[in-house]
Amino acid sequence: DFVNIASGTPFTVSEVEALHDLFRKISNTVVKDNLIHKEEFHVALFRNKKKQNLFVDRLFDLFDQKGNGVIEFGEFVRSLSVFHPGAPEEQKAAFAFKLYDLRQTGFIERNELKEMVCALLDESELDITSDAVEMIVDRTFDQADTKGDGRIDQEEWTAFAKDNPYVLRNMTLPYLKDITMVFPSFVVHSEISEADMAAK
Amino acid sequence: RSCNAFQLISSMSSGFDLSGLFESE
After folding, report:
1. Which end of chain B has a smaller Cβ tally under 10 Å, C or N?
2. Which residue, among A103, A38, A102, has the nearest Cα to A68 in the 3D structure?
3. What is the CA angle A69-A70-A71, rounded to 5?
């Protein structure tokens, strides 16, 4: 099964195995059923299940590809693979578009962007006036909404991300590049036995 | 000057910091 899951992602089979170890841990923190519930996703990210975060909720929904309220292992690996440094930029851009299309209308609308900026300011210490927020949103639309219809479609977004690659910065997790090296504890639990490790 | 909303979101939101997933000790 690991082989199957690894295919079509930049992960090797042993990396998928390492991810399974991580998945098992996260998916059993609240409900011991080997599925990641929203609460467990929050706990893993924030150590706090109560903290509300617009983006984490959207991320959870996107990881939950089947939309059945839980993240299964295959969904976890496939979604994380988009954040791999080796994943194609177009894939990252498409994922980010879905994230930002809060109401899943197929467009990033002005009020959605404003909502995201406000959510961001809420969680940060930044104190920015609502006039300034309007200005930032206006200016962003000036740049990205090239067709000028008041919403950003997938095509406009892809072009915008291509011209401004830094907007996809959050779509790359350097950790994923060599997951078994960065998290050597995984290796112990993988096929390499403890005795082999001790011998090294 | 070149600041835009998506830049702010991508560089600042803790909601995107998935590294927490890897520190779930």
Report:
1. N
2. A38
3. 135
Do A116 and B3 make contact, defined as CB atoms within 8 angstroms?
A: no
Would you give the DSSP letter of residue A138?
H
Q: Which residues contact A149 (CB under 8 A, 6 or more apart)?
A: none
What pLDDT is stored for residue B1 in this prediction? 46
3-state secondary structure A70-92: EECHHHHHHHHHCCCCCCCHHHH
In Å, how far are A23, A87, A121, A159, A162 from A10, measured between CA atoms?
A: 18, 7, 34, 24, 21
Beta carbons of A169 and B24 less than 8 Å apart: no
Residue B2 or A164, more confident? A164
Instruction: Tell me the CA end-to-end span of chain B in Å, nearest whole number.
Output: 41
List of chain A residues with pLDDT < 70: 48-50, 182-200
What the block records as the tokens of A88 is 């194609």
Residue A191: the pLDDT is 45
Contact B15/A54, CB-based, under 8 Å? yes
Which of A29, A54, A75, A120 to probe the B interface (max B CBs under 10 A)? Answer: A120
What distance in Å separates the CA atoms of residue A19 and residue A132, rounded to the nearest whole number?
Answer: 42
The Cβ of residue A127 has, within 10 Å, a number of other Cβ atoms equal to 7
pLDDT tens figures, A136-184: 999 999 999 999 999 999 999 999 999 999 999 889 988 888 787 765 5
- Please judge whether A170 and B9 are an interchain contact, meaning their C-beta atoms are less than 8 angstroms apart: yes
Classify the complex by whether its ipTM is higher than 0.95, answering yes or no.
no
